[in-house]
Write a structure and sequence with these properties.
This protein is α+β, with helices and mostly antiparallel strands. It has three helices and eight strands.
Length: 214
């Protein structure tokens, strides 16, 4: 009787152990993985605004308009400063021709505009430029080979053209209508025109008046 009771107790213990193991397996299957967090529409990532693009750039550009006032033919050259200076005109002519040495420079009214006349020489070649004194445009250009080339000016040794005009009007008061600097019989000479009638010749190296031609 005692032996039977022990056998029943052992069987009951095995049954209870099996039931406990089955409950653990069910619990592990039922629990499953922890669900991941899903971002909702309207989150920071979804609402980022692209501030770097914007509207496409306008590729069209307005044409540059030249609204600079052109001096008329009646101005007095004495003391007048043009938009394009003598140095500017020399640089334009030198850049275009490749020559460095001017043998004549002048200011004159031609074809409805004030123009710099810049004549250069180098290695038997001569270039003649007419350059708009307001815009810097090359309005006329000629080039030719010369066996007897002109002697270049020494611009570092001469008085300035404004000083030459001042000297001329002291001698003959009036409106300066054009002027030029060139060599005459080996001398560097300014020829200043007063009122389109009187020409005053000035030694460009000394500033002395050489001749007045009425």
């Amino acid at each position: 009787m005692k032996t039977r009771t022990l056998g029943l107790a052992a069987a009951l213990a095995l049954t209870l152990a099996a039931c406990a193991e089955g409950d653990d397996d069910v619990a592990s299957v039922t629990a499953g993985p922890t669900p991941t967090e899903i971002s909702s529409p309207g989150s920071a990532a979804g609402n980022e605004t692209d501030g770097g693009t914007g509207d496409a750039a306008d590729d069209t550009t307005d044409d540059e308009s030249d609204d600079r006032a052109r001096p008329d033919e009646g101005i007095d050259l004495n003391g007048y400063e043009f938009e394009v200076s003598l140095d500017d005109a020399l640089e334009i002519a030198r850049s275009e021709s490749g020559a460095e040495d001017p043998y004549k420079v002048a200011m004159e009214w031609s074809d409805g505009a004030w123009q710099w006349e810049i004549d250069l020489t180098a290695d038997g070649q001569e270039w003649e430029f007419e350059i708009d004194a307001t815009t810097g445009e090359i309005r006329d250009f000629e080039s030719d080979s010369e066996s007897d080339a002109e002697t270049p000016l020494d611009l570092d040794s001469v008085i300035g053209h404004h000083e030459a005009m001042e000297t001329a009007v002291v001698e003959r008061p009036g409106r300066v209508t054009d002027w030029e600097l060139k060599r005459d019989d080996g001398r560097q000479v300014y020829e200043v025109e007063i009122d389109d009638e009187t020409e005053v010749k000035i030694d460009a190296d000394t500033g002395e008046i050489m001749e007045v031609d009425d």
